Amino acid sequence: MDPVAFTIGPLTVRWYGLLIALAILIGYFGSNRMVKKQGLNQDDFLSLILIVVVCGVICARIYYVVFEWSYYSEHPEHIIAIWRGGLAIHGGILGGLISGIFACRHYKISFWQAADIFAPWVVLAQAIGRWGNFFNQEAYGYAVDPNVIPWAMYIDGAYRHPTFLYESIWDFLTFLLLIYLSRKAFLKQGECFLIYLISYSAVRFFIEGLRTDSLMLGDFRVAQLMSIALIILAVGLFIYRRRKNLALDKPWLKQ
Hints:
Elements: E1 4-8, E2 11-14, H1 15-37, H2 42-67, H3 69-72, H4 89-107, H5 111-136, E3 153-155, E4 158-160, H6 163-181, H7 191-208, E5 216-217, E6 220-221, H8 222-243
Antiparallel strand pairs: 1-2, 3-4, 5-6
Helix pairs in contact: 1-2, 1-5, 2-4, 4-5, 5-6, 5-7, 6-7, 7-8
């Protein structure tokens, strides 16, 4: 596939950038509907979204560049060229979390409530964004026999596991699950977000083992290490908040 969607004079617009922009827009409008339903201040949430998105994208790029420094140290002009690909989701999650915590304190918004609002739309944005990898012909798996794996895609001279497709499908299913769970009173504030971390990290751990372009830390795939850490953190917080009665009910479901 041609990674360029269209050109207007000297301006080149790539599918990767278009899909990332589309994902952000859908995430904004979707989360804004939930903000309205819960009777929260829309202006404050718009500011929160802008902060989280900007910091998330910057950190996703920094994370990727750090682990690919052998390349970027020789091609520093490509460091800011995010339209060429190279946004690490785990870096975006960390950047979004840290900036979100501080921004929520500033705007006096419950972090856990905001995290639950964002979680379904973040994972839907990830599902959409993965198709940017398809157009850029990146984030694919190792070569396979198409007679054994009939859904394999022909990429870079061979039939390969379409790992971006696997993750996109799982992310979309997680989105549907979180939308369903967000309407259930048996889950407390913040627990939809924790389920998102567990679901995404679990599938990413296995899919990462199929990929050929993993960021590495010595002999280990960084995404797998991060996935394990996030699962442990999310499960630990789930149990701890329940045992200490720190997880609050969702009052807007009783209105």
